[in-house]
Write a structure and sequence with these properties.
Elements: H1 4-29
């Protein structure tokens, strides 16, 4: 059984985190930050 998917999961996950971080920083700089509407359950 090939474990190449395990090897690729780290760089793919890191790239997805990088893209998400970039988009959030861009939105913050443009003043379009999303408001957190989550409520506490406790």
């Amino acid at each position: 059984m090939s474990y190449s998917w395990v090897t690729m999961s780290f760089p793919v996950g890191a790239a997805m985190l990088l893209v998400t971080t970039f988009l959030k920083v861009r939105d913050e700089l443009h003043g379009k930050a999303a408001v957190n509407v989550a409520t506490d359950v406790l």
